[in-house]
Amino acid sequence: MTSESEIQFSAMPYGEFLEYVEVIAAGVHKDGWLPDYIVGIGRGGLVPATYLSHKLNIPLLSIDHSSKVNVFSDDLLVYLAGCCAAGERYLFVDDINDSGKTIARFRKILIDNGAVRENFRFAVLIGNVSSREVTEYVAMSLDRRLDKRWFIFPWGAVASREAQERDAREDPDRLGLASAPGDSVPFPM
To answer: Residue ranges of the Phosphoribosyltransferase domain (predicted)?
Structure first.
């Protein structure tokens, strides 16, 4: 059994990532709701969005939420809200919906700036069933109240242990971990 402050790193094999992209693409086709654009949410959603863009043959846009530079994030969302109001459809893609903060923020900015709710949706590779936000498309579900794994996606595998650890602890709501300064974090070899 692990203590509450330990992070359980879990590497996602490339083949599993591809299967998740296929699941989302199949869901979009089955639903019949086709977006005009796929929008990758940076940083973690950029690679899945690129693959989904190729799979569905739909153009790709990106928003760099992780940079916290408004001109690459919030300002672009305000612009896309106007496009949504004019009838364009957008599928926003992220790697994982943990706490739901990112999705809630995006939805709020879009709606507050006139986007038509029927013209945008969200897809994630992994969805947390206990998140405060629900996405329209999810390849795999988990419950963060029980499952504390921090997923190392194929594109994140090149990061150092320290960077992975820092990312995992950046927002305590993601994993529901106690984050005390100086905690040691085991990392499987």
So the answer is: 20-156
* Residue 185 confidence (pLDDT) above 60: no
For residues 78-117, one letter each, b for 16 or more C-beta atoms within 10 angstroms of the residue's C-beta and e for the rest, the string is bebbebbeeebbbbbbbbbbbbbebbeebbebbeebebee
Q: From CA 59, how far away is CA 46, in angstroms rounded?
A: 13
Evaluate whether residue 6 is within a structural domain. Answer: no
In the chain, how many domains are there? Answer: 1
The residue range of the domain holding 148 is 13-157
3-state secondary structure of 93: strand
pTM of the predicted model as reported, rounded to 2 decimal places: 0.87
Let me know if residue 60 belongs to a domain. Answer: yes
Quote the tokens at residue 181. 């300064």
